[in-house]
């Protein structure tokens, strides 16, 4: 993986809670998402995801830092000591990192395919049928 979660800062403080991510290799942060979930009884991440943040497309260089703020705000970038710090905002009005037993996942993907539900189903007299993707 080309990025790594360093820490969660100000855990439980709505105005300043944020995730710090280090960029280990050149990449586009738009190929990553953060998921908030919990653990199953087998200590594996649950598939019952509570919230997801998908980063917008933004090329990154090795050594850059990504800050994902829980609160609302405007995405920005700032040069610090010759490296870039990119700040993104989840847009939530409350803390999500409110249980030390929860799980934070960072997921890399090459393609994100999305469709409106109405575009992939159709109705017939026999009921709802799924269209092939």
How would you describe what is shown here?
By secondary structure, the chain is mainly β. It has a single domain, classed as Immunoglobulin-like (Sandwich). 3% of the residues lie in helices and 44% in strands. It contains one helix and twelve strands. The chain has one helix spanning 117-120, and strands at residues 3-9, 18-23, 27-28, 32-37, 51-54, 59-60, 65-69, 76-80, 83-89, 103-108, 121-124, 127-130. The strands form four sheets. It has a five-stranded mixed sheet with strand order 1-2-7-9-8, with no helix packed on it. It has a three-stranded antiparallel sheet with strand order 5-4-10, with no helix packed on it. A two-stranded antiparallel sheet has the order 3-6. Strand 11 and strand 12 form a beta hairpin. The model has no long low-confidence stretch (mean pLDDT 91).
Task: Give me a quick take on this structure.
By secondary structure, the protein is mainly beta. The protein is built from 1 helix and 12 strands, in the order E-E-E-E-E-E-E-E-E-E-H-E-E.
Poorly predicted spans:
none
The total beta strand count reads 12
What's the N-to-C terminus distance?
29 Å
Main sheet properties:
5 strands, mixed
Strand share of the residues?
35-45%
Provide a count of the helices. Answer: 1
Give the overall form.
globular
Report the helical percentage: under 10%
Secondary-structure element string: EEEEEEEEEEHEE
Give me the CATH architecture, please.
Sandwich
How many domains? 1
The CATH class name reads: Mainly Beta
Radius of gyration: 18 Å
| Overall residue-averaged pLDDT value | 91
CATH topology: Immunoglobulin-like
């Amino acid at each position: 993986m080309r990025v790594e979660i360093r820490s969660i800062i100000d855990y439980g403080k709505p105005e300043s809670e944020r995730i710090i991510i280090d960029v280990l290799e050149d990449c586009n942060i738009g190929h990553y998402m953060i998921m908030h979930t919990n653990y199953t009884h087998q200590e594996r991440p649950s598939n019952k995801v509570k919230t997801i943040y998908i980063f917008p497309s933004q090329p990154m260089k090795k050594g850059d830092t990504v800050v994902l703020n829980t609160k609302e705000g405007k995405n920005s970038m700032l040069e610090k000591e010759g490296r870039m710090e990119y700040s993104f905002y989840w847009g939530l009005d409350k803390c999500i990192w409110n249980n030390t037993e929860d799980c934070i996942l960072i997921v890399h993907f090459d393609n994100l395919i999305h469709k409106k539900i109405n575009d992939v189903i159709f109705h017939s007299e026999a009921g709802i049928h799924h269209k092939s993707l």
